[in-house]
Amino acid sequence: MASINVHAGDFGEGKALLKTDTILLPIKKGQGRLNRDKLKITDITSLDIATEESVKRIAGTAGWGTAGALLLGPAGLLAGLILGGKKSEVTFIAQVNDDQTLLATTEMKIYKKLMAAIY
After folding, report:
1. For 83, which DSSP code?
2. Residues with Cβ < 8 Å from 114, sequence gap 6 or more?
3. Do the strands 2-9 and 101-107 form a parallel or antiparallel pair, or are they unpaired?
4. Coil, strand, or helix at residue 103?
5. What percent of the chain lies above the pLDDT cut of 90?
6. CA 25 to CA 5: how far, in whole Å?
C-alpha cells in the first residue's frame, strides 16, 4: 500500500492509502463515520501538479497576507526540504467526477501510477 498525504479539498485531511485501484481517504472531521471514504482512481478526471496559482484557487478563502506568507516563505523551505531528500515527492490537485477536489502530496512514483491509471 502506498501513502498519500491529503492537505485540503472535499475529503478529510491526513493520511490516505492507495490500494490497487482505490484510494482510502481519511474521514472528514465531524462526520463520525467508522469507515474511510473510498475514491476509485477511475473517478479522477484530471490530475495536475499544484502550482502557486492552482493552490490559490483551491484555498480561495485565505487572505492575501496569509497566502503570500505561506506561498513565498514556508513554501520555499518546504520545496527545499522535499527536493533535498532522497525521495521525490509531488503535490497535486485531483478533480473527481462529481466536482470534488483533492490537494495531496505523494511520492513521484505513486503520482506517475495515478497518471497512468486515469489516462
Report:
1. H
2. 18, 41, 44, 47, 92, 94, 106
3. antiparallel
4. strand
5. 32
6. 9
